[in-house]
Amino acid sequence: MKSEHQPPHETVDTxxxxxxxxxxxxxxxxxxxxxxxxxxxxxxxxxQTIPDIVYVIDKDGYFTFLNSAIRRIGFExxxxxxxxxxxxxxxxxxxxxxxxxxLPKFKGKITGEDKAPKLFDERRTGERRTKxxxxxxxxxNIQGLETDELVVCSLVSSSGYxxxxxxGGKKEFMGTIGSLRDISHRKRTERALKESxxxxxxxxxxxxxxxxxxxxxxxxxxxxxxxxxxxxxTEEDFQRGITLYDVxxxxxxxxAENYFNRVINGKSFEAAEYRxxxxxxxxxxxxxxxxPMKRRNRVIxxxxxxxNVTDKKEMEKELQKAQILESLGxxxxxxxxxxxxxxxGIYGNVQLAQKKLAKGxxxxxxxxxxxxxxxxxxxxSKQLLTFSKGGEPIKKVTPITDLLKETxxxxxxxxxxxxxxxxxxxLWSCNIDTSQVGQVLNNLVINAGQAMPEGGTIVIGAxxxxxxxxxxxxLQEGPYVKIWVQDHGIGIRKENIGKIFDPYFTTKxxxxxxxxxxxxxxxxxxxxxxxxxxxxxxxTTFYTYIPAVHETEKSPDRxxxxxxxxxxxxxxxxxDEIVKIVGKEILTDIGYAVTTAENGEEAxxxxxxxxxxGAPFDIVILDLTIPGGMxxxxxxxxxxxxxxxxxxxxxxxxxxDPVMAHPQEYGFKGVVSKPYNxxxxxxxxxxxxxxxxxx
Length: 695
Description:
Elements: H1 9-49, E1 53-58, E2 63-66, H2 77-80, H3 99-102, H4 104-107, E3 130-138, E4 150-164, E5 171-182, H5 184-206, E6 210-215, E7 220-223, H6 225-231, H7 235-240, H8 244-247, H9 253-264, E8 272-277, E9 283-295, E10 298-308, H10 310-359, H11 364-387, E11 396-399, H12 400-411, E12 417-423, E13 429-432, H13 434-450, E14 456-467, E15 478-486, H14 515-525, E16 529-535, E17 539-549, E18 569-573, H15 577-589, E19 593-597, H16 600-613, E20 619-623, H17 632-642, E21 648-652, H18 658-661, E22 670-673, H19 678-694
Parallel strand pairs: 12-14, 18-19, 18-20, 20-21, 21-22
Antiparallel strand pairs: 1-2, 1-5, 3-4, 4-5, 6-7, 6-10, 8-9, 9-10, 11-13, 13-17, 14-15, 15-17, 16-17
Helix pairs in contact: 10-11, 11-14, 12-13, 13-14, 16-17
């Protein structure tokens, strides 16, 4: 029989289950407690070992926790507990973290205690989380620092923390958690860097050199005081932006860009001269040195030091003028001496021929001597014209190899000096005046032979080269043929090497001393360069650079034309009576009917009359210069208006006019130089008459 106080069977099971659940929950709670303890230990270890100062303050701004990093500024953590956060700050920095300084950024106005210095009050509303706010913190007499010395720190992070009410309602503001990082070293470094920059700028402003910097975009990022003054730019111009190409002369842009690239690539830092323009457009000459600017081993631009050498260049020009005047004095004396010798030969032979002729004797020998003396006068005249501002080359594309070999053979003929050629097989042609360049090569070969009186071998070489923007040679970029003539003779003294291209300077017993001066002038007029290297007792090498053409264009074959009888009507215009007489006699002798004119006006009238009569002139020879009258250039324009097919030759005793170098551009079909050479005149007349018959 069951007792009425015995619990039902289901009730006992329920209690057992409840007890089992309680035991499991107890075990779970113990595990959670252990996890919590371990987490707190990790948190404690983390907070105490990080280098930043970690702090907790209550809602009124009083410290409730500080980690051990506070010892870095001389405080024990416990010594600050209960102290207000503001007691750690410099008084002047307290407002940086007050609500009066911060709240307006969020609300646009301040409510409540407008001027209250209470710190972090705005965090009660959860409206602000401070990051990277720099404040000054007071130290506590740590070693190496005096009491209350300021340490600059950064308020790395600061935010409020809250507690939720028991009813799960509105969160209650409990205080602030934050961290401080000592950036004193960084600030001292920044101050040192600023001080270094200040010293650099002050020093740069004292220098008599323009100091400037450009970034990789070629924009000017810094310029010292002298740069502003010299270039005429203002700070406003600088702020708007000035580039490398605003200050470099447009013709130097290519060189400047190439130079910039070489510098940033670390290839070359040598000084170079550039034409620079100031704000008003005036041109200055600057000697520029550059080096790359680097940050963390990365090039960020270039720094330039520029010296104004404009005045120096002007002084050099004045000095050159003085040297030229001195050279001209020497030149005039040499010319007078040479021409007196030539005239003595001509005049003496003329007198002797007259006497012999009166006696009926043969005067052929005297005439030959007169012709030789005249040839010397013509040669000297050509050299002087070439050396002068005139002597413009009459160019045509010419293979250099043949010219070199022919010149060497002619110059060394009959001497005890041999020749070794080192000429490239694919040597480019050059657009040259064959006669002038041949004269240069002849001078160099003869000089080399004379430098070896005991005999020997000279070396003549030629190669194709390309002159780039980085070349140190004063030449334009492009293809060139480089020619060298090397002897193994006595050499040139060091003190004389700079004078060898001066007119009438010579150390030889024979010769006028004009050869190298003329050579220098010829090559310069061809856009090239001639230089020399020598060592006393070891020989001399001359290097000649002539602009080349890549095309395989060949010059016309040089064929000798026989003196064949001509046939046709020729109009010869010249103001000199002797030239008219000689020219008419030569042309008549080779078969032409010749009419002469004094000036352009007369020539135009004669040409018009001949056309009207039905017997026009086949060829017209026009003197380029008629003092006080119409010269050849004006006359050919008039003739073209009368007859577009007029065939005309321009003639002159000197070639200081581009018409002689480029006759076709001015309406002429050919050119003949004075004094007239019968073979040359015959050749050009026959060529033009043949062309007229073919058309």
